[in-house]
Amino acid sequence: MKNKEPIILIVVIFFSLVTYYLVEPFAHGVMHKHVDSENFQYADLPALTKSGNVANGEELIINAGCTGCHSMEKAGMPAPMDAVTAAQSYGVNPPDLSEVGALYDDKFLADLIKNPAHALKVEHKFDASKGEMHPMVPFYGMGGDIDQEVADMVAYLKNLAVSPSDVTPAMAFENACGRCHAVEYENWTQIGTKPSFKHEKDSLAFDIQVLEYEDSLKKYMGKLPPDLSSYIRSRSEDFLITFIENPQNHLAGTAMPRVGVTADTAEKVLEYMRDAGDTKRHERESIGKVVMIYIVIFAIFAFLWKKQVWRDLH
Amino acid sequence: MENNSRRGFMGKAFGAVAAVGAVGSLVAMKKTWDPLPSVKAAGFTTLDMTVYQEGVMVTEKWRGKPIFVLKKSAEVMENEKGNPAAEARNIKIGDDNFMVAIGLCTHLGCIPAFRPAENDFLCACHGGMFDASGLVTKVPPPRGFDIPPFKIDGTNLILGEVGPEWQSMKDNGVTL
Amino acid sequence: MAHFTKATSVKDWLNQRLAIETVEKVMMSEYWIPKNINFLWAMGMVLVVTFVLLLVSGIFLLMYYVPTVDEAFYSVNYTIMREVDFGWLWRHIHGVAASVVFLVIYIHMFTGIYYGSYKKGREMIWISGMLLFVAFSAEAFSGYMLPWGQMSYWAGMVITNLFSGGSLHADALVEWIRGDYVPAQAFLGRFFMLHVLLIPLAIVGLIGLHFAALRIPHVNNQDGEEIDFNAESKKYLDGDKAGSKVMRFANDFMSKDMMVVGIFLIFLFYLVFWNYSFALDPVNFDPADGLKTPEHIYPEWYFLWSYEILRPFNIDLGLVLFGFAQVIFVFLPFLDRSPNTCPANRRGTMFKVWFWLMLSNMIVLTAMGKLPPEGIFSTIGLVAAIVFVVQWIALPFITSREKKV
Questions:
Q1: Which residues contact A84 (CB under 8 A, 6 or more apart)?
Q2: Would you say C100 and C114 are in contact if contact means Cβ atoms under 8 Å apart?
Q3: What is the CATH number of the domain that holds B100?
Q4: Which of A137, A242, C8, C288 is the most exposed place for a label (fewest CB within 10 A)?
Q5: Smallest CA–CA separation between B59 and chain A, in Å?
Q6: So what's the pLDDT on residue A149?
Q7: Which segments of C285-348 does DSSP mark as H helices, in order?
Q8: Cross-chain residue pair C252–A27, CB shorter than 8 Å
Q9: Based on the domain organization, do B52 and B106 belong to the same domain?
């Protein structure tokens, strides 16, 4: 009798794959808006035309009053106030400027200094014409060519920061995301990593600080930004990348600002999130290979056994 | 013969007694699945309606759902005049007028935000809008905010109990 | 008391007390299987292996899972996924196998329909199999609640709402099932119990019934041929292995079972390690939040076809048709009036079309059940749902007119 098994197998595989295609790639393609990555080009922002002078930049940063709100630990300038008080004043704790030159795009930094709400894409929330000012005061220039001055400041920040290749995932995440988003699984709160306390009283005191910070944040953002512990599993990487690049593309009107990270920094942020929510991925890869090799051997032996047993049956 | 039928009868009688026991234990099992007294007690929320200020929207919680409570000013009441849909939703307690509603967008259940300046609600998910009486002013929501079952008890509002005011709202199709 | 003699070996000792040789014959070596069957007959063994994988992985998950609304999500996503050695592996196996088991069940079911394996004395095999399908569905649903993510919560909300009976507004029944007004601690606690104890017990019992139902009518074969098992097995035992129409279950057919299992496991473990999102829905990696509805709520893929039968109609008609779809498969042996027990393709055009349309239509329903109910998708869904119902109503009429082949 003719062996029909190959054709039966083809029928089974065909119907299974059609079902899979329809409920997975196809349905998710329909349900989720597709946003193309802009490759972190920030094409809407003007290019830097001037080359900056580091020494002038340093002077400008101090004179322009940046350090009135921002710390710059690396240059020996501590934060003027603690995170909780800062959040009460500004809504969110302003970032330390030590490494920003390595983390963020140059064009973005320059635009941010001149017009924060524009660079951050939150002009729907902070409309200067209605008197709604972004808590970060724009830099109006020190009397010279403002573009030159801004270029100098950016040059100084880049000079101060580590080389982009030395940026760690934690550095990237904490500066760009971690002042609004907690990551419970990494013990990260918006005011820093929670230390282990000896006394429960101290631990609770720290928690209260976090809650107070979160209260300010809630007022500033409209709602508490979510904990990102398992976002690497709950969102696709493509979604995360394009969302970080420009949140407005996915969620028009959202209070989350465009943070202006470089492509490298975004990848580091993702690496941090993978460590938090998909910690065992390397093990999964390596164990997976071993298991597959074993299962193939198992199947071969089963096949050989079957052949031997069935030799007598025909 | 007689013996046999007697044995048959006793067998059936035993079966009946066993069945009574089984049904009895089923009652106990059913009751074990009932909501606990503490859960039921939490199912009724009493709101003291004297504490609210005009134009300030307060979110209360009832059965795990957000409840919007908004005391309406005379000005708002003036606006509502001649709008039967809005008047039908009004909850009058003493001399005060309230909007009390389940604070979930009737589209897909997001929680709309109150905008004090405009005195209305805007849902961030799909842009639905509701006015101060809870009626839809901009789609997609299919209907105004649902009104939780309530009973007026003096100056208190008991959520979860069905009073005559709510019953008539339900009968007239004002709320689900 | 029976007479016992001094045992000559451990086997003899056991044999005197447990009759293991008889058991071995009945269950294995003289459990006769027709030779004219194909790899689709190995799906039963594939299901047994998958069930064992689910059981074993479940046991290890159970040791660390905490069934409280405050800790369930953390215990799954932090403790099991990050802390417990190989916890992630058990969870991935459990999640993926729970999804794949339904693919195999559907293949197994449609194999039965195609070859007419529910007819002529095999009705109880079919009925016990459909009861197993119901038990597996309940097991899958209750398990889906346990990680207490967004999909757990909202699927729990939507599915328990079905019991309100539409216009009947049986809210008290819904609250009784939940033990609360919304899914909360009481709800999680009872579904945890159902998932780890009551339903698995029922499944094990039903598997026993399913196997027992096979023993007397024997498994069907791919030609629907009536085989004289006594004569054929005698032929086999007399040494004419090649001439007999039957073979032993063990080792003859079991060696083929294992070959199919081997190939199946390659596929399963590929999914476990590299393509698991279809079974471990990303939305469920957000913790449950009763104040925030996910943008799209959909059941797991294996429930989609019946969910889609619910959706296009108004709530009452939808519920009635949904109930119809849930139970109608059980009655297949009695709705099929045909005298034939043979493959669908040889039973004449009418049934041949019925079979392939049923299969394709259920895939269409499955796809539409996941897509948002808008525009063309809801129209296709409505048509497919009507076709499904009409097909079942038509079944007794078209099969009773079938000629004997």
A1: A191, A209, A212, A213, A216
A2: no
A3: 2.102.10.10
A4: C8
A5: 14
A6: 93
A7: 304-310, 315-328, 332-335
A8: no
A9: yes
| B110 within a domain of the structure (yes/no) | yes
Q: Do C285 and A233 touch (CB under 8 A)?
A: yes
Residue B27 shares a structural domain with residue B48: no
Residue B23 in any domain: the answer is yes
Do B46 and B10 have their domain in common? no
Angle (CA) B26-B29-B33 rounded to 5° is 140
Looking at the fold, whether B71 and B85 belong to one and the same domain comes out as yes
Neighbours of C368 (CB within 10 A): 29
Q: Is B140 on the interface with C (CB under 8 A)?
A: no
Gap from A248 CA to chain B (nearest CA, Å) = 13
Domain span at B12 = 2-34
> B107 pLDDT band (50/70/90 cuts)?
low
Question: Which residue reads 């041949």 in tokens?
Answer: C352
Neighbours of C355 (CB within 10 A): 18
Of A189-203, B111-125, C133-147, C333-347, the one with minimum mean pLDDT is B111-125
**pLDDT of chain C along its 405 residues, tens only?**
688 999 999 999 999 999 999 999 999 999 999 999 999 999 999 999 999 999 999 999 999 999 999 999 999 999 999 999 999 999 999 999 999 999 999 999 999 999 999 998 899 999 999 999 999 999 999 999 999 999 999 889 888 888 877 777 777 898 899 999 889 999 999 999 999 999 999 999 999 999 999 999 999 999 989 999 999 999 999 999 999 999 999 889 999 999 999 999 999 999 999 999 999 999 999 999 887 778 788 899 999 999 999 888 877 888 899 999 989 999 999 999 998 888 999 998 999 999 999 999 999 999 999 988 778 988 999 999 999 999 999 999 999 998 887
Query: Which residue ranges make up each domain of chain C?
Result: 305-405
Is residue B176 in a domain? no
Q: Does C193 touch chain B (CB under 8 A)?
A: no
Answer yes or no: do B17 and B61 share one domain. Answer: no
Given CB atoms, is C289 within the 8 Å cutoff of chain B?
no
Provide φ and ψ at B58, rounded to 5°. -120, 135
Residue B2 has pLDDT above 60, yes or no: no
Instruction: Quick: pLDDT tens for A32-89.
Output: 888 888 899 999 999 988 889 999 999 999 888 899 999 999 999 999 999 999 999 9
C269 close to A (CB below 8 A): yes
Q: Are residues B21 and B106 in the same domain?
A: no
A65 touches chain B (CB under 8 A): no
In chain A, residues with a C-beta closer than 8 Å to the C-beta of B113 are: 222
Asked whether residue B87 falls in the same domain as residue B70, the answer is: yes
How far, in Å, CA of C371 to CA of A276, rounded? 31
User: How many domains, chain B?
Assistant: 2
- For every residue of C100-147, DSSP letters joined together read HHHHHHHHHHHHHHHHTTTSTT-HHHHHHHHHHHHHHHHHHHHHHHTT
How distant is the Cα of C67 from the closest Cα of chain A, in angstroms?
Answer: 19
Positive or negative: CA dihedral B169, B170, B173, B174 = positive
Co-location of B20 and B75 in the same domain:
no
Residues 121 through 160 of chain C touching chain A, CB cutoff 8 Å? none
**Residue C295: closest C-alpha in chain B:** B108
Among C175, C184, C293, select the one facing B64 at the smallest CB separation.
C184
Q: What is the pLDDT of residues A139-161, one digit of tens each?
A: 988 888 899 999 999 999 999 99
Shortest distance, CA C176 to any CA of chain B (angstroms): 5
The superfamily CATH assigns to domain A32-279 is: Cytochrome c-like domain (1.10.760.10)
Whether B108 and chain A come into contact, CB under 8 Å, resolves to: no
Classify residue C111 by burial, with Cβ atoms within 10 Å: 0-12, 13-18, 19+: buried
Interface of B with C in 37-56 (CB under 8 A): 39, 43
Length of chain C: 405
Give the minimum alpha-carbon distance from B108 to chain C in angstroms, rounded to a whole number.
7
